[in-house]
Amino acid sequence: MRIHTDEIIYATRRWLEKSVIGLNLCPFAEGPYRGNRVRFFVSERRSASGLLEDLHSELKSLDAADPLACETALLIHPWVLNDFVEYNDFLEACDGAVIELGLEGRLQVASFHPQYQFADSQPDDIENYTNRSPYPMLHLLREASVERAIAATGDTTQIYLKNMRTLRALGHAGWQRLWRE
Length: 181
Fold this sequence. Notes:
Number of strands: 4
Oligomer: single chain
Largest sheet: 4 strands, mixed
Structural class: alpha+beta
Order of helices and strands: HHEHEHEEHH
Distance between the termini: 25 Å
Radius of gyration: 16 Å
Shape: globular
C-alpha cells in the first residue's frame, strides 16, 4: 500500500496543529504556519545520498525565497532513514550541507522523527514526543527567524523545560487522546 504525498502532508499538518502549535511546544511555529509561510516538501528518495540531494535543493530554495512568502521548510522523507540511529547519524551530513553551500549563519536544520529519542532518555519517555513527528523530517530554518524568536522569548532553555513539564502532565494517555479527537 502506497501512501500519497497529500496524505503525508495532511498527517504532518495535523501533527503541527495538535502537537507543536496545539501544545505550544514551539512558540514560534504558529505565525509562519497560520501565515502559510511553511513549505512542505515530500522527498521520494529511497537512499540517504538521494535525500542529501533533495536537502541541497531545499536549502537553496529556502535561501532564495522571500521570507515573507516562505519562512521555513519541512523536508519530509518517509522512505529513507526510518531507523532513528541512521537518521541521527545523517544529521552530521545535514550540517555539512549547510556549510558546503555557504549557508552557515543563514540557515540551520532541526530534526524530527517518529522514533526520536533524546540522549540519556529511554525510548518510551514522554519527553521524546516533543520531537516525534509522523514521518522522518528535516526542518529548515532561517537563522534570522531563530534569532528574532530568541530575542522575543529570551532564554530558550525555558521552552525545553516547559515542554518537558507539559508532556509529563499530559502523559502517554493524554498524548494518545490528542490523536483520537
